[in-house]
Amino acid sequence: MAEVMPYIVSALGGGGLGLAIKAILDWRAVRAKANLDDTSAAVSLTKAATELLNPLRTELAARERQVLALRDELDVCTQEAQALRNELAMARVEADALRREREQDRARIRVLEDMLRRR
Amino acid sequence: MMAWLERRLRGSVSSSIPYTDPLRAGRHPFQTFMLGLCVISGIPLLAGRETAGSIDATLPDWLAVGWGICLFGGAVTALVGTYWRGEIDTALMLERMGLDLTGTAAVCYTAAILIVASIPGVVAAAIVLGFATACLRRARDVAAMFVRAKNGDG
Q1: Which of A38, A59, A103, B152 is the most buried (most CB within 10 A)?
Q2: ipTM of the modeled complex
């Protein structure tokens, strides 16, 4: 296997060199096109980079909408919870009033029973 | 003391992360670090002092030097392109070229490790192959921008 290593490395090196040459050719092609379009290569590449970002931006926008929807839902639930807490507080006040009334009624009943026993 | 340190750190925090932009993604700290390592490891290699054992064992001298030039030259070119202050198209071209060469050299090194060390060398080979994949992947991303720019509306 070690005997074929120089051939493997030479082939890989050729491939790497080919990729590097392609990089230069692509660069020249972009510059030529930019001159033809009367723009700059930097503008073309920036536009290309922005287009590559577009799918990510769409996903991000969808997630932001989800977050906003969840936030609205949370607000509604918070308001409902507050309303229920208010209702509970009122119910407690009513229960206390009823308890006091019951105590007063019991006290009246005891007084009346005492009066009946004395007769 | 803590308040002073906090004030100093607050002042040094940048409000932007430049390498989130595809045009400047090469400036990611990890990429810079790995390419810097390649440059550092290539210097003694080209000076003829320490060499990679696997490469020496499997390649003739001239090819080993060629591999060293590919690794060192590729890493230097990629770093120059990454931090190029001129036009962005030149910067991206240099970065892509450099990463292609560095990735190729890393693939060759992976093959050499597997041939020399076989099974015990699988972990080291996997690490180097991972680095090669990362280099070629970033080069491919840059190539995609060039292809779009070439075929686009301008």
Answers
A1: B152
A2: 0.80
